[in-house]
Design goal:
The protein contains 3 helices and 6 strands. By secondary structure, it is mainly alpha-helical. The chain has a two-stranded antiparallel ribbon with strand order 1-2.
Length: 204
């Protein structure tokens, strides 16, 4: 969407009327402006055709998604509007596709001022779609990502707690074993002394 917005903004600047009483444009200026409109529409068509995901043409109004609202227990559904030139604009001033060469809003027929109004309406439509996408992101995507992060942290904490518990049990067992080994080593000299005493008694 950023590329489309930038393309339209540049076109709007080119077609901007020169003032309240704009002078009549020369044929060369009309041709230059019309060529810019045609190039912008072709560029937007290429961007739209190239913007695909998982088989969907995302900018042609065919993509929709639903995400659970983990904070309020509902579901958010979002459908991205079409950004095709035939949909960018308004029924009042015209759509972008009508501003190309031979169209009802081409510069040769309506002049720069009307063509500029058509482009500004197209910009407004793109901005509306961007605002809707931003709202969906803040209301549905961001909370879901936060919930997933918390869930991942909880899983890690649970696994760490389980590991710590297992290590504590093993440490306790090792301590018991060390204690038994230490006790057996202390008893060994006493048993040897008892054995020597018995031998002396027998010899005596």
């Amino acid at each position: 969407m950023g590329e489309i917005t930038a393309c339209l903004e540049a076109l709007a600047d080119l077609l901007r009327p020169g003032g309240r009483r704009a002078r009549r444009r020369s044929p060369k200026e009309l041709d230059t402006g019309q060529a810019a409109v045609d190039a912008a529409v072709n560029a937007i068509d290429r961007i739209i055709d190239a913007t695909r995901h998982d088989g969907y043409e995302l900018l042609k109004g065919a993509w929709a998604t639903s995400l659970p609202d983990v904070e309020h227990g509902c579901t958010h559904t979002f459908r991205l509007g079409s950004l095709e030139p035939s949909r960018l604009g308004s029924s009042r001033v015209g759509f972008l596709s009508s501003a190309v060469t031979g169209g009802t809003r081409s510069l040769g027929r309506v002049g720069h001022a009307v063509a500029h109004a058509v482009v500004r309406a197209a910009v407004a439509e793109v901005m509306r779609c961007r605002e809707e996408l931003s709202a969906f992101s803040s209301e549905a995507v961001d909370p879901l990502l936060r919930a997933l992060e918390v869930a991942a942290e909880n899983v890690c904490a649970s696994e760490k707690s389980s590991i710590d518990s297992d290590l504590a049990i093993e440490a306790s067992r090792l301590t018991q074993i060390d204690a038994l080994l230490a006790g057996s080593q202390q008893d060994q000299p006493v048993s040897k002394l008892k054995g020597h005493a018995v031998l002396r008694l027998r010899r005596g």
